[in-house]
Design brief:
globular, alpha/beta, 2 domains, 42% helix, Aspartate Aminotransferase, domain 2, 16 helices, Aspartate Aminotransferase, domain 1, binds pyridoxal-5'-phosphate, 375 residues
Length: 375
């Protein structure tokens, strides 16, 4: 008998795997029901821009499938460079932005090195750290009864940085809490962090933030060479299935990430889809507007049910059942509504719901109302 846990590096052995949101097909097969809705993974309820579907359909052919993609993603990088006003050599493409987080950990961490992130931060940070056999240092989050409950405490994070630390993960806004940072506070943090520590600003929910709260990451990238900004096409652009995201950084760091990544870490269909998605600003605006209306409705519905929730600048809302949320999650599944349990994040009384279409939001509120009144 081979003990593979003895063979493996200690990081991967100790790693707690990511639990994805339950897919509709899986739930329906398990319960023998139909017509379910998934509000568990913060996907765009409007789908994607029709320009994306058209561009992908136009590209489909046997020859297109047979060829390896452009490993460097020149065209997509050129579009992103123009979009952000940044040099193409400062862009790293990833198989989702998750890939960029993993590449950073692979390049910068290892035994004897550490990363810092907040309690209740995105689940991929501990996974990427452990996979690279780095040490994860988890900073205490802000108090549950503060203005920004469960949010990042940048002072607590700063206090964990010493000469073993090479990587800091900051999610703004954060998933699963929805909480955000003051732009000035983030810049003060960057100024204070030693410049041999790479700070990742994960902006997966960037477009959902009100304009006033957006960090001017483009300016900060020029001022702080140790900053990396990650963005994804999975959320507002509505192409999570394509697995495409990117990092913006100093060209020297992008060069390192490019050495580590698989030569074909993102695919040709994703390149086509992402370029079309980036070009459709109207779809982004429509998605933001739909989200704001939906968020207001879901908050109002939760108020009516007497259910509390965290502040959010995202396309999801994390609500507090003030008791073990697992039975509510299970009962919601039987109603055909998939939300996200947060016990794995150390928030056993909370559930997270994505803001859906008008119809989905009503179904969510109806189902929750029935579940809660059934006790
Ligand atoms: C969804 C999400 C991502 C992006 O994931 P992809 O790999 O690009 O699909 C990154 N960070 C956070 C905080 C997220 O919620």
């Amino acid at each position: 008998m081979i003990d593979f846990k003895q063979l493996a590096m200690p990081g991967p052995v100790a790693l707690k795997p990511y639990t994805p949101g339950k897919p509709v097909e899986v739930l329906e097969r398990e319960l023998g029901i139909t017509g379910s809705i998934k509000l568990a993974s913060n996907e765009n309820p409007l789908g994607c821009s029709p320009a994306v579907t058209a561009a992908v359909q136009a590209s489909l052919s046997g020859d297109f499938f047979a060829r390896y993609p452009d490993a460097a993603g020149h065209e997509l990088k050129a579009d992103l460079a123009a979009h952000h006003g940044i040099e193409a050599e400062r862009i790293t493409l990833g198989n989702g932005s998750n890939d960029i987080l993993v590449l950073l950990a692979q390049a910068l961490l290892g035994p004897g090195r550490a990363s810092v992130f907040s309690d209740y931060a995105f689940a991929v940070y501990p996974i990427a750290t452990a996979a690279a056999s780095g040490e994860a240092r988890v900073a205490q989050a802000l108090d549950a009864d503060s203005d920004m409950p469960y949010g990042h405490d940048l002072e607590a994070m700063r206090a964990l940085i010493d000469d073993k630390v090479r990587l800091v993960f900051v999610a703004n806004p954060n998933n699963p809490t929805g909480t955000w940072l003051e732009p000035d506070g983030f810049e003060a943090f960057l100024r204070d962090v030693p410049d041999d520590v790479v700070v990742v600003l994960d902006e997966a929910y960037h477009h959902y933030q009100p304009e006033d709260w957006r960090i001017d990451a483009r300016r900060l990238l020029d001022e702080y060479p140790n900053l990396v900004v990650t963005r994804t096409f999975s959320k507002i652009y509505g192409i999570a299935a394509m697995r495409i995201g990117y990092g913006l950084s100093h060209a020297g760091l992008a060069d390192i990430l490019n050495r580590v990544r698989q030569p074909f870490n993102n695919n040709a269909v994703a390149h086509v889809a992402a370029r079309a998605a980036l070009a459709d600003g109207e779809f982004v605006d429509e998605s933001v507007a739909t989200n704001l209306t939906g968020l207001a409705r879901v908050r109002q519905g939760l108020d009516a049910l007497g259910v509390g929730y965290l502040p959010t600048h995202t396309n999801f809302l994390t609500f507090d059942l003030a008791r073990d949320a697992a039975p509510v999650y299970e009962a919601m599944l039987r109603e055909g509504v998939i939300v996200r349990p947060l016990a794995g994040y150390g928030m056993p009384n909370h559930l997270r719901t994505t803001i859906g279409t008008v119809h989905e939001n009503e179904r969510f509120l109806d189902a929750l109302g029935r579940v809660l009144s059934a006790g």
